[in-house]
Amino acid sequence: MAWWLKNNIRMVQNNIRDIDARIDIDKHIQWLKDLGANTLQIGCGGITAFHPTELDCQWESPYMKGDFFGEMLEKCHANGIRVIARFDFSKTHESFYEAHPDWYFRSADGSPVRYHDTVATCVNGAYQRERSLDILREVLTKYPVDGIFFNMFGYITFDYSGNYVGICQCDNCRRRFKEMYGEELPVKEDIDDPVFRKYMEFKKITVDEMLTKIHNLARELNPECAVSTYADTGVDIVRNESNSAVDRPLPFWIYNSSDNVGEIEGSYEDKISSNCCINAVDLPYRFMGVSDSLNQIRLYGDLAAGGSLDWCIIGNFEDYHDYENFESVKKIFHFHKQYESYFGHFSPKTRILVVKEGSRKELCAEYRGIYHMLKEAHLLFTVVKLNALESHIKEFDEYDFILLPDVHQVSEPVLDALKQTRASVIATGLALEEQADALQALFGISLKEKVTDVRGTYLKTDPADVFSDFAEKKKYWVFLDGPYCGMELGEETRGLLPKVEKARFGPPERCYGHEETDEPMMAEFRNKNLYVPWNIGTLYYKLGYDEFKRLLLDAMSSIRTLPRLFETNAPEMVEIFFAECEPSVYLLQMINMTGWNGMTFFEPWALDGMEVRFTGISPVSAEVMTEEGLKPVPLEDGCLKCPMKKGQLYQAFKIQV
């Protein structure tokens, strides 16, 4: 088995600066050992070479004396620490520009993108397509690295300050796009433009082509070298990040780590997830860390979802300016080291599959809202990326529900499997709107024209036998906001949630005249599948009204019992993970996020009476994982009492069945 597939990585990434080529390497390694790291990811080449290079396409750090990277690698290996060499081919030092202008990105006006003393390169230029391979060949031939990682790989449309620079218009991009599609390059990103959609395909094809070349080169020169970047083609370790940004639109995505890890663990058997928990509050503020609670939530999310541990700071340890999070990183790394045989190889017995649309980032709000609903309801689920879904077709019948939040189109093999599966298919957020045949086959509906003039519209929670939670609470109307499509229903489809037309808006004296209609805003097909022609997940994600979650879960419950392996009185903001980690052994993990108020992370609450009652398995014993080792805890009729102290963010139990 390749070393990375053991999935027991505890990695620190030092994003080193030119000046760090002069640090005390022995002290650096001692820091890594104290933290409990078994892997270091550190700068090697690209923008700056941290090793002596014989190539005329790299700029060496002027602060380096001798061979910084080579010495770091040798001493790490002597201390049992693997090393992944970090490269960044997105830019070069400006000294190469005059001699090789064809290497570089061009804005619409033909100008390059300069940032300080660097210039942005292009995926289709000779630097990325040829010279990058020369750089890798030099490193892989000279050094026994354990892995190679590429930062900012692919097509970059923003500079480091976040300024939009547009679609590259260099001659190489123009020529290749013309050869492949017979079209001129688009100059504007517009998903409704068919030429831009071709450009999105063009980007994937050309990036995948380079990643495949890199992977083949690495395997040829060093079969034990893992390839890693923020992609899933030609890589062994899929990188992602849990990070923050001061200008990022709210709401804050609290499940960032478990989401990032879960989509890789659920989608691929031959890759592992390395979700990097960025210590910094933002790129311009790299020397201040996020709150300790958030840092722990991110790392525990990596651990609990089945990924490796991955944590990053800028520069070296000695002159870093914020050590607040170091102790908790050390605690979590050492906990993982103590129990690593139980982690990284989970077999979740989930009965809900959520499909994640990976190519349209702007659509993730619908997915996130559904994700949030299921997490708060303590319903276990598996995430599979849309581009990996065909490889999971044979598993469809293992699920009770397959959810398609804002998945606009599926392949024919996937559609055929969805038609035949025993699972109930739930589609939300105008899913499959580009496939009229799929809508008819799966839901017995056709969509009418999209309606955008919505504000003031309501949904009537009828019929009461479906939306029973609302009948008990005597809540009859729920507001609708955002675009929707009306539906024509076939004979086998029942309409739910009739629309209440908006009335006059103004002073209270004039607010009347709402008309209850028969037009359904949810469709139930053959008492099996559900279609929601509006953004129920997005509304929950952005606004948080519990009614949207209750509408969906009520409707799902009306067609099939919601699958649970356990019942719990845990608060909604306790994230629970439950999976088999070896035959007849399960791991129950809890992350206590009750200290999060939506903006700030405070110390989590004490949860004195929390318990879990197992309904899908028959446990015979339970042990809690502590720093002192596994300690038995009582099980009473399949019920585990699992209180958490004030300030306790995480706990894990080994359950024997």
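[next item in queue]
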Amino acid sequence: MNDVDPARRGAIKRLLAPKSVAIVGASPTPGSLGGGVLGNLERFGFKGDIHLVNPSRSEIGGRPCVASTRDLPMGVDAAVLAIPGKGVLDALRGCAERGVGGAIVFSAGFAEAGPEGAARQREIVELARKSGMAIEGPNCLGVVNYIDNVCLTFGVAAPFAPAGGRGVAIVSQSGAMATVLRAALHARDIGVSCTVSTGNEAIDGVEDFLDTMLDDPAHACVAMVVEQFRKPRAFLALARRARKIGKVVFLLHPGRGQAARQSAATHTGALAGDWEVMRACAQSAGVCVVESLEEIIDVCEIAMRSPRLPRGGVAMITDSGAFKAITLDTAESLGLRMPELSPTSSEIIGAIAPGLILPTNPLDLTAQALVDPDLYRKTLRPLLDDDAFGSVLFGVIFSSPHMAHRKNKPIVDALRDFKPEKPVFLAMLGDEAEVPADLIAQFRELKTPFFRSPERLMRALARLDQWASRPLPPEGGEAPEAETLPAGTVPEHRAKKLLRPFGVATPKGDLAQALVDAVAVAARVGYPVALKAQSAALSHKSDAGGVILNVASAEALRDAWTRLHGNIAKANPALELDGVLVEAMSPRGVELIVGARNDPDWGAIVLVGMGGVTAEALGDVRIMPAGLGVDAIAAEISALKGAALLKGFRGDGPRDIRAAAEIAAGVGRFAQAHPEVREIDINPVLVLPEGQGALALDALIEVG
């Protein structure tokens, strides 16, 4: 199923914001799961009806108990199952009979516990589908809704209403990570609207909960920790919708270092690992993909606290020349843009302290800032007015609380007076040095995020700038109709014939079954030519002596024809060739690898890398979803580590990157048109001088 089931949306909304709750396994025992849920609901001041289920008690704390879920009143919105796993199915059946909207299952021992547990989980799925009941879990930590004062988890939690009724929505398969992220944001005084722990996702997963959050203004942004997407294409559709409505989805997805799920013999299969495919598709759909727990916390703070998301170049004001150099190194490694000052702001700043402060970015106020702390204020204004910068970052040394107050008073005063529309950030140099709490509070009140690590802040800014500057590609239309290919290996001569109508340029040539045909083809395309043996069973032609290059004349061709067939007969006497591909030799150029595959989860993806062993040895590849435009693909090619070879290197002129991008785009369109294709491998693609095009010198297609 590629789309979120709209029929379940109402049930999930009832589960997340219930007006009535049943606690199955309610208990007065301190530390019990059911007792924890009841205590949280009372602590949060839940105003709805609370129904308790315990077959051994008639009341708990003055609240009546019923013996079974079948004794509940009709239409309870949410049931929390705080009972052992063996009783879950019967309790859920009772919930279904009484029209419960949704259930949270804390219990473990289902799909994560082996075949028997998986069978029990399948029964939950079947029950949920028949009844329309939403299911969170099993093996989850529940829901905390800070907007509606609903706390359906067993760990002790405290109310924390987000300012303005808007906060970060947290969706995590891991209950522990949901808790950690929520605690970290609260520690920074950032509101959380809701946390959802999805656990095993028997039927309702992260995609379903994300769907209910996008149109709710209470959720300012969404932070997700996902180990596996069970409905990835539904997630991509939701991500595109989020980007269109201006709601950022932040994603932390573990598994970067794991081996690819499937490593095929071709470069495409070996190089396009699962995590990289996920990242390419998610980023293209508008997701801000982060790589650590620190990053997701930091970007959430910036998104919630800044007047707007930072975008574009960053200006830094610091009071250390050494840190200025460190900043430039860090920015370069992160790809964070730090443009030069405009002539106007350069002139203004140059006149503030002539001979002492140079108008550069980063701007070093030197020790003069100790003499005149008002320099922080004086230099901020022109940088805010400079269109070269989308945000301003203070990197200030804190050596003592006294110094922190002395330096930051003019910054605070300036922020109050200027009320900047651009984001402004304060990062201290000093890590855990003591900082007066009132100073941090002042900055937060002024919508100025405070960081104890400039490097963490710069990393978060770089991540957000990369997200903001990546345009959302146009929606892909229907894949062109194409005849389904039979399973197996498609040899080079036929692969090229199939790919040419999709814009994949190849050398001039043709297949020859006899020597006389080969001579005719060579005469037509012009010498020198290449001869390549063709058979679906001969994917590695060179190893069998099936490739002879630089054949310069008809006489040489006759000799090469005989040698080639002799090599094949020696290597594999039973092999019957389709023929010999005769092609014009290509001029010198830079080699790339271009490939594609139809990923069972994410759809058609394209890979481009530097040729030779560079891609495999150094991981110098770019992965992208099929359907990107030629300009976007050209930008990805230009971001390769070895792209300097394409842009003009050691006297060579620039290469035709756009023509290479057109080949990659065509390969992607072919993969979309043929979902039965497992992999396409074009190695190499020869990139000629700018304006002269690019050629697919070899091609292999695996079907099925």
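[queue empty]
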